[in-house]
Amino acid sequence: MLISGSLILLLMGLLYGWSIIALPLEREFAWTRDKTSLIFVAVMVFFTSGVLAGGPVSKRFSPGVCIRISGFLIFAGFVLASRVDSVWGMCLSYGFLCGLGIGITYNVVLTATLFWFPGKTGLASGFLLGGFGLGSFALGPAVSALINSSMGWRRGFLIIGAVFLVLVFVESFIICKPKEGEIEQESHDSGEGGKNPVERNSSPGEMLGSPFFRRMYLWGTVLSSCTVGILGIGALFASDMGAGYTLAAVMSGFLSIGNGGGRIAFGLVYDRFGRKFSMRTGALFFLSGVTLLIISHFTANLLLVGLGYFFAGLCCGALPPIYSCTCRKYFGPRYFSWNIGLFNSTNIPAVLIGNFAAGILRSKTGSYLPVFGVMAIFSILAFGIEFAMGKAEKNIPGSGSC
């Protein structure tokens, strides 16, 4: 179950490979960076909408049916995207259909699979989300070679859509929720030396009313603005630094390696050391990464670009397991498929700040240096928000030492 879920999310992780796909579009249509950024905004907004929709959809249909529906949405998105020649057409085809399908799959696979690992939420979510984070690294070079070949990106989109449809359809027959009594009851040991904070199952409304969640949401929005911005830049900054299409995809791969590895590592870190350590370490990794990217701007050193992407990617990977573990441990498993969508909705304001606004700033200044400077300030701000969460955490029943 864990392997199948990870493989599906590996495919879905191509979502983060947008910077690779954007290069041939910029070349053919002479689109500026703010225009291609707008398409990524659409992808992330509808991805988040799909994660939110995964809650009610999974209540009506089995995980397999939900995944198959999503597979058809993604296929249709690539097919329609292969026929358009405008930014808005790409937003509605690739952005809306692919983003929505990936978001629903993300929610359904994560929710169904975690039911099998009630006592190892961090470990299981780390492996699942690790697959999602490694998607652009595993698929990026092949996708880049395909869409930049003599075949062209339009035919490449058709092939990618068909491959997605077949593989997702096959895997959809494996993913399912456990039957009653098929797994052991959830342990009350949080794995952090304290009591498991799950003493109630908070509905979405109750969670939204929690000061702890609101501060967590603010922290996630601030840091997600940085991570989503870096994911959208990816191969584009490396290309600005003089890397060719293939090398730019490889540089973007360092970001994906950090993203995928961070998801696995922080799932384990959360189980062992808890929320505070995980959140502070994630912010520190991003600050280190963006500092290296600033230095690389002045030195034109592609090695520093790769290292900067790797450290920033570790923070990108830290956020999803922190979200899923915090959501389940503090607000319970009953409404997890609904509540996790609310946690992930930080992507909507984040993509507007971190990608669309960053694209405009890059187009106006001709450089990513101001963008990196704002990201460094945001990552420092995240530390302050996390420290302010301690008082609100104490008001959650059984919060223990998390």
Count helical runs: 17
Number of strands: 0
Helix content: over 70%
Corresponding CATH architecture: Up-down Bundle
CATH homologous superfamily - what is it? MFS general substrate transporter like domains
CA-atom Rg in angstroms? 20 Å
Q: What summary fits the major beta sheet?
A: none
Kindly report the CATH topology.
Growth Hormone, Chain: A
From the N-terminal CA to the C-terminal CA, the straight-line distance is 28 Å
CATH hierarchy class name: Mainly Alpha
Question: By helix and strand content, what is the structural category?
Answer: mainly alpha
Silhouette: globular
Task: Write the element-wise H/E pattern from the N-terminal end onward.
Answer: HHHHHHHHHHHHHHHHH
Low-confidence stretches are 186-198, 398-402
**How big a fraction of the residues is strand?**
under 5%
Q: Quaternary arrangement of the chains shown?
A: single chain
Number of domains: 1
GO molecular function, one term: transmembrane transporter activity
Protein name: Transporter, major facilitator family
Keywords: Membrane, Transmembrane, Transmembrane helix
Pfam families: MFS_1 (PF07690)
Provide a concise account of the structure shown.
With 402 residues, the chain is an all-alpha fold.
Structural commentary:
With 402 residues, the protein is an all-alpha fold. The chain has one domain (2-177, 204-392): MFS general substrate transporter like domains (Growth Hormone, Chain: A), CATH 1.20.1250.20. The chain contains 17 helices and no strands. It has helices at residues 2-12, 18-29, 33-60, 63-81, 87-114, 121-133, 135-147, 152-171, 204-208, 211-240, 245-273, 275-299, 302-331, 336-344, 347-365, 369-387, 390-394. Helix 1 (2-12) packs antiparallel against helix 5, helix 3 (33-60) packs antiparallel against helix 14 (336-344) and helix 4 packs antiparallel against helix 5. The longest helix is centred in the middle third of the chain and has 30 residues, at 211-240. The protein is globular, with a radius of gyration of 20 Å. The two termini are 28 Å apart. Residues 186-198 and 398-402 have low confidence and may be disordered.
